[in-house]
Amino acid sequence: MHGKTVMITGGTSGIGAATARALAGMGAAVVIVSRSEARCKAVVEQLRAETGNDQLDYIVADLSSLEAVRTAAERFRNRHDRLDVLINNAGGIFMSRQVSVDGLEMTFALNHMSYFLLTNLLLDVLQASAPARVINVSSNAYRGATLDFDDLQMARRYSGFAAYARSKLMNILFTYELARRLAGTGVTANALHPGFVASNFGLNNGQPWKALIRLTQRFGISPDVGARTPIYLASSPEVEGVTGQYFVRNRAVQTAPITYDRALATRLWEVSAALAGLQEHAPELIGDARAV
Ligand SMILES: NC(=O)c1ccc[n+]([C@@H]2O[C@H](COP(=O)([O-])OP(=O)(O)OC[C@H]3O[C@@H](n4cnc5c(N)ncnc54)[C@H](OP(=O)(O)O)[C@@H]3O)[C@@H](O)[C@H]2O)c1
Fold first, then answer.
1. Cβ(135)–Cβ(230) under 8 Å?
2. Which of 58, 115, 142, 164 is catalytic?
3. Mean pLDDT value across residues 168-186
4. Ligand 1 within 6 A of 10 CB?
């Protein structure tokens, strides 16, 4: 990975931190993104000491905010002239409904909109660095989820699990649509399931969720094992040119029929672009999508 630049959102904990460590160890210039300057600094210092890599950088951003995603993309551009691998990984589950600074439901804002907007804002850098890779950390939790464009923000009926499952379905729909749009550009887009990982995931919630999550995490794999697939997708020559796939344990697998629904993926793309302010014809597309 010498000479390559990798950006990892959520690089301070769990799967993202383990991925950052491995790629830094392979010689990549690694840029991590998180909400906390202190956590970013600590991880970068630790990685520098462990790997001897001095090309480590961080960007502080609350990725649930569209404005913060824009600023993060701008900061990246100001400091780096290439991007070989973008790993959209920062995500969470919110057991009670929360709303982002933009008035979007929090799971949707963080788990989907940050992937969508950050990628779109860095597409030109990725294309200029081609062959380049976009890797979206999704989850098998997407199974059984559906999209309801009349209540995309789950304002009428909210469940943390359902919001999470839906956001992970969006990650796959977004990945497949991105791969179609990027065909022939030299930029690939793939999604993955890391496995059930014992990390800080879900611990942002109050009791009794925290206790329950801690209990179930006893059965989880370590972040280092969970990071194997993103590391593979970021670094392996075996997946050079491979795009529009969903990987589990370094293998491309079929996903549920809904993920291959192109009309659904296009609609999600257009609504997301409108919400992110990437499209002119926003008002009629946003419609109920913004209702909170
Ligand atoms: N754990 C699992 O079993 C599992 C299974 C399937 C999929 N996944 C997916 O894997 C990804 C990583 O999860 P994990 O298990 O590694 O969780 P984790 O240990 O909680 O790490 C989450 C990372 O995201 C960052 N983050 C959270 N909210 C953020 C925000 N608003 N803005 C910027 N960064 C934010 C955190 O950094 P700061 O707190 O420093 O901001 C942290 O680095 C998620 O997308 C999750 O859906 C996890």
1. yes
2. 164
3. 97
4. yes
Specify the pLDDT at position 284: 54
| Residue 10 C-alpha from the chain's centroid | 8
Residue 103 has which token pair? 């008035």
**Per-domain boundaries in the chain:** 5-290
Under CATH, which architecture does the 5-290 domain have? 3-Layer(aba) Sandwich (3.40)
CB of 14 within 6 A of ligand 1: the answer is yes
Nearest atom of ligand 1 to the alpha carbon of 35: 41
Which of 9, 19, 35 is the best mutation target for the ligand 1 pocket, counting ligand atoms within 8 Å of the beta carbon and taking the most? 35
d(CA 171, CA 210): 25
At residue 279 the predicted structure's pLDDT band, cuts being 50, 70 and 90, is confident
Residue located nearest, by CA, to atom 6 of ligand 1: 139
Cis peptide, bond prior to residue 208, ω within 30 of zero: yes
How much is the pTM? 0.96
pLDDT of residue 204 exceeding 70, the answer is yes
Name the residue type at position 185: T
- The residue whose CA has the least distance to atom 1 of ligand 1 is 197
